[in-house]
Amino acid sequence: MSIVVTRTEAALSADTSFQSMNNQFASSGLSLVVPSGVSQISSISMGVSSVATGADFCSGFKLTGTALQEGDATFMGPAIAQAASSGTGVANCVMQEKTALGVTSGNTLDIQIAVTTAATIDCSCTIQFE
Length: 130
Hints:
By secondary structure, this protein is mostly beta strands. The chain is built from no helices and 8 strands.
């Protein structure tokens, strides 16, 4: 059985400290409990955007919580490089990583994001449980 969960943030004031992603588009303040019948996270997809002129940063996504059997997992996320004045920056910033992270059903999981240079961003993260 495969179950997919997504979390999003819009207009997030991101910086070098990890912040929880607990929204799903219009729904906010969501917790994430690992569904029953699954034993691992098989993939993580990460997307980031920023419309700020001159935005230039790398992102990192972190999975943390009591559900992870071997502790926290941190992934390199998409990088953004916007033009300093005019022109076009990055058009598509989505990454997907295959994993085999063991999880415990019924326990909590927190998806977090940080960036190398402070920026206002939109971001999304989808994890697939199997």
